[in-house]
């Protein structure tokens, strides 16, 4: 059964990004993005056991994840310049198979980030 999940790791502190806000958007053919949901990550840097999209919500198409990086690091007491080097990580990706598991992790610090399609 298809589903979409995420996991964020704070590489500056070596821990999950607990408390980070993440927004999921569906991107239409016209490029307009519609917010599907916004979540706050749990103590493990995940969405609290529930996928971002479950089997009944999965759909082929373009999607976007917005990771609120600067507010997360500021809340942890990190002194960031204004504007922050990385404020919001915007990750556009495609779902080609609605029956598959798409896992989109983020490894992030105030100065860099990386992602990949996980399992």
UniProtKB/TrEMBL annotation:
Domain of life according to the entry: Bacteria
Entries under InterPro entries matching the protein: Hydroxyisourate_hydrolase (IPR014306), Thyroxine_BS (IPR023418), Transthyretin/HIU_hydrolase (IPR000895), Transthyretin/HIU_hydrolase_d (IPR023416), Transthyretin/HIU_hydrolase_sf (IPR036817)
Keywords: Hydrolase, Purine metabolism
Database matches in PROSITE patterns: TRANSTHYRETIN_1
A Pfam cross-reference name: Transthyretin
Domain Transthyretin/hydroxyisourate hydrolase: 4-118
Catalytic activity: 5-hydroxyisourate + H2O = 5-hydroxy-2-oxo-4-ureido-2,5-dihydro-1H-imidazole-5-carboxylate + H(+)
GO molecular function: hydroxyisourate hydrolase activity
Documented EC number(s): 3.5.2.17
Family from the record: Belongs to the transthyretin family. 5-hydroxyisourate hydrolase subfamily.
PANTHER family xref list: 5-HYDROXYISOURATE HYDROLASE, URICASE AND TRANSTHYRETIN-RELATED
Subunit structure and binding partners: Homotetramer.
Purpose: Catalyzes the hydrolysis of 5-hydroxyisourate (HIU) to 2-oxo-4-hydroxy-4-carboxy-5-ureidoimidazoline (OHCU).
Identification of the protein by name: 5-hydroxyisourate hydrolase
Lineage of producing organism: Bacteria, Pseudomonadati, Pseudomonadota, Betaproteobacteria, Burkholderiales
């Amino acid at each position: 059964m298809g589903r979409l999940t995420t996991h964020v790791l704070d590489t500056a502190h070596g821990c999950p990004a607990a408390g980070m806000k993440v927004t999921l958007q569906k991107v239409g053919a016209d490029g307009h993005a519609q917010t599907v949901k916004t979540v706050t990550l749990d103590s493990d840097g995940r969405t609290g056991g529930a996928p971002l999209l479950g089997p009944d919500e999965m759909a082929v198409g373009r999607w976007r994840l917005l990771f609120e990086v600067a507010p997360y690091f500021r809340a942890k007491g990190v002194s960031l310049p204004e504007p922050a080097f990385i404020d919001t990580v915007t990750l556009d990706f495609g779902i080609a198979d609605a029956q598959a598991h798409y896992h989109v992790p983020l490894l992030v610090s105030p100065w860099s980030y990386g992602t990949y399609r996980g399992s």
